[in-house]
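Usage example:
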Amino acid sequence: MLWDALTLGLGYNATLVTIGAALLGVAAGVTGTFLYLRKRALVSDAISHATLPGVALAFIVMVLLGGDGRSLPALLLGAAVSSWIGLMCVNWLTARTRLAEDAAIGAVLSVFFGFGIVLLTVIQTMNAGRAAGLEGFLLGSTAGMLFNDAVVIAVGGAVTLALVFVLRRPMGLVAFDPEFSAASGVNVGRVDLAIMGLALAVTVVGLKVVGLVLIVAMLIIPPVTARFWTDRTDHMAMISGLCGGLAAWVGAALSATAPALPTGPIIVLTSFAIFVVSLLLAPERGMLAVGLHHRRFQRRVHMRQGLLALAQGQPIYERFTLKLLRRAGLAHADGVATEDGKARAAKALRDEKRWELVRADQAFESAAVQYDGLREIETVLTVDQIAEIDRRMGGPTGVMP
Amino acid sequence: MSLELAANDGVAPTGAGLASSPLALRGMTVSYGQKPVVFSVDMTIAEGAMTAIIGPNGAGKSTLLKAALGIVSPLAGQVTVFGKPLAAERHRIAYVPQRASVDWDFPTRVIDVVLMGLYRELGLLQRIRGQHRDKAMACLERVGMAGFAERQIGQLSGGQQQRVFLARALAQEADLYLLDEPFAGVDAATEKAIIDVLKSLKDEGKTVVAVHHDLATVAEYFDRVFLVNTRKMAEGTVAEAFSAENLDRTYGGRLATGQIDQLDLVAG
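Running the assembly step on the lines above writes:
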């Protein structure tokens, strides 16, 4: 069943929904990357909630003009207009008043959403009782998705992606260093508007699939996930798009397997599952990798301290240090060094003195920068350089193991 | 110091110099809220010289640079760059912001940051080619950071970060270099690398302006000083303007007499 859904074998509507959602997921992931890097992720929350009055007003206007009020392009246009007004309000409040951005977002979000709910209630009382369906914009409703709806989503997503591709350089530049961007002649305000505008486009296009309450998740979770896997902006945008698309595809397929599973929330939960896996398992930035790295570092510190203590004939009080030394065959249970341990300890002490000279000498500047008290000196200096240091120190020469 | 420069030393910029000065501010006033940070400042930067902008904390040094670059919009005042409006000659300016002004955990590599200096050249759609990478690597080479090109910027020390910022400015191939506290919080090796690059820029006939906070190195590093504390306090060659009297006025007695004595200044 699930396999059928994943391979688009569950009928016409499920196929439309899955493809539409996946396209939206890719567009949201890529666009969200720049929103996240510009540290404006929360603005998308204001943008999405501000769509509601637009949807409702567009419906009312269409009904008053004699239509049936359910044309998706017209509803989305209304959503785009009111959400743009909401965005301008956030910008204006942040720039012209003493309100910080988070407060401005909160104010705009709740006022617009509240107004939208009032309008929805008014619509319920209208004669055109066919308002049923507008609530679908809150949490998304894919059950009655038509081919035309899917086309609107696909075209909107594709145009947004193309624009992100064209604007990726200025958006990345402004996100990293707005002052340098401004000094280079980039209009920072306009680039910011472009970032927000693209997020707005994704939001509006995604209203039908995941709804305005949850679209934020599609803009934020994929970039946060992607950040675990890469240290490059371009790669991050691509991975984020991939995660977004994958989550939407799998989520839509999952929800198609049972009648009671809502598409939008399932997509968000799938996205979250990918995030959790990344959080735990990503190389370098994942929690497991960071934990292992820390443990390895801790062992190196204890080992080094233990060896220096042995070399100077000091007693070792830390049981963890002693355990490490014993396991490596460098010390006996009573803390007395083995033959091996004595050699290694002498080397450690000697390296310590070598480092001292290296760090005092301007000529070894680049090597000295790498000093962390733990690094084996032969990983930083050549044998010849160590010989030179040893010559200055006097005493026995050579890099002992 | 070259002969032409020596001839200009000690002389305030002439009328002709003013018209074509790399950077001239007239009546510049910038305020955050109701409090002017920079008030009615005139500044004429001498071409081919290294100028230090000096003043106490909060005296508007950085703001002055930002106003000159159009990063903050002034309440009043005009900027001319090489005798023309800023917008026309912006491509001849390179800027090194304060290191702390960006998030160093940003997902980008050292080489990518330097390539940002080629933004104007690359535009929106041109692919980054070998020639662009070569140019960026040459700039990294110049600041002694070529070996770090593939590193994530968060792995760099403060001094290395500062050198990457300088490399990005070099990639802009400008005639006027504006630097905001390039020596703040860097190690000795970096300080030397940076001053060597700046002096080589000067030898190529470029103009260098830096916000500087270490009074002890002013005479060694710079040709001219611009003393500011909201208002312009003094301007001129190190020999004529970097005097105990001017420093005392600029810092409003906040410098201990001993500190000034140690600077070994010419008599005010």
